[in-house]
Design brief:
One of its GO terms (cellular component) is cytosol. The protein has about 160 residues and is of the alpha+beta class. It is built from three helices and eleven strands, in the order βαββββαββαββββ. Strands 1, 2, 3, 4, 5, 6, 7, 8, 9, 10 and 11 form an eleven-stranded antiparallel sheet that branches. β6 (about 75-80) and β7 (about 90-100) form a beta hairpin. It is globular.
């Protein structure tokens, strides 16, 4: 991380910056995330999914023919969000970055283990060439390393920005 700053316009001017270690922990512990991509015609696309935080990046997967995979193929710039979905209390998080395919078998095996450790045996994933086994083909795996991230605290209200 290269910098952390707060913007007092979006909260209590005396609110301290949220430490990246706290934001990273909350991001890793979240169960549901929202992925925002851009369709080839420029319209936005947002969808909920599960993901894991591993090796200082968020990792997600999607079927090779799904809209999000097709969008990322055209424009790999994405936003991944998660949070507490409450007005008072908690921390909402936004990670901006570039979705990069993960194809290395060792990395895929480590990620499959991370998914199962986090979500349980219902999310056992078998590694195949190019991703995870999927009944409809291959599930592509993407790594999104943060370029910029935001934390929106709600007790007190605050906005922290981290640049990497």
């Amino acid at each position: 991380m290269t910098s952390t700053d707060t913007d007092p316009r979006y909260g209590d001017p005396d609110a301290p910056a949220t430490p990246w270690t706290e934001a990273r922990r909350k991001f890793a512990e979240a169960e549901v995330y929202w992925l925002s991509t851009v369709r080839p015609d420029g319209r936005p696309h947002v969808t909920p999914l599960i993901a894991v935080w591993h090796d200082e990046a968020v990792h997600l997967c999607t079927g090779q023919d799904e809209r999000k995979a097709r969008n990322v193929a055209e424009n790999p710039n994405v936003v991944v969000t998660t949070g507490d979905n409450a007005l008072h209390g908690g921390l909402d998080l936004v990670v901006e970055g570039t979705a990069e395919r993960v194809t290395d078998p060792g990395a895929l095996a480590a990620l499959a283990a991370a998914w199962e450790a986090k979500y349980g045996p219902d999310w056992h994933l078998d590694v195949v060439e190019g991703g995870f086994a999927n009944p409809h083909g291959v599930a592509l795996v993407f790594r999104v390393e943060p370029v910029t991230a935001f934390g929106f605290g709600k007790d007190p209200y605050s906005q922290t920005r981290w640049r990497f």
